[in-house]
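Fold this: Sugar isomerase
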Amino acid sequence: GLLGKIGDTTRRTVVIGDPDTPMAAMADDTIVLEFADEKSVVQTRFATSALTLLRAHLGLHTDAVVEDAQVALAEPLPTGLVECSQFTFLGQGWSVGLANEAALKMREAALAWT
């Protein structure tokens, strides 16, 4: 794989759910999120945990993020939202992968058209 081709000139750090994988053995540093390892089709816990870890490392994860999530979950859904049948997630540059992942999660978890 790609990680094995990098060689010894570049330090390799992996964020992984299962430490007993070949990728973990090839890395110089391993950040193990065993609590978030998932075997299901919809793997939301690992992606969310890894994103939170990386945001915290960059100083972007603050208590305000948690408070914003709590407020959003406490608010009632806007009228008509439950009846929506198609959803679109947009991304540009680095956020294309995030938009694709959001669309996949919506298709898998809600069986919705994206």
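The chain has two domains: 1-61, 75-109. The beta strands are 13-16, 29-32.
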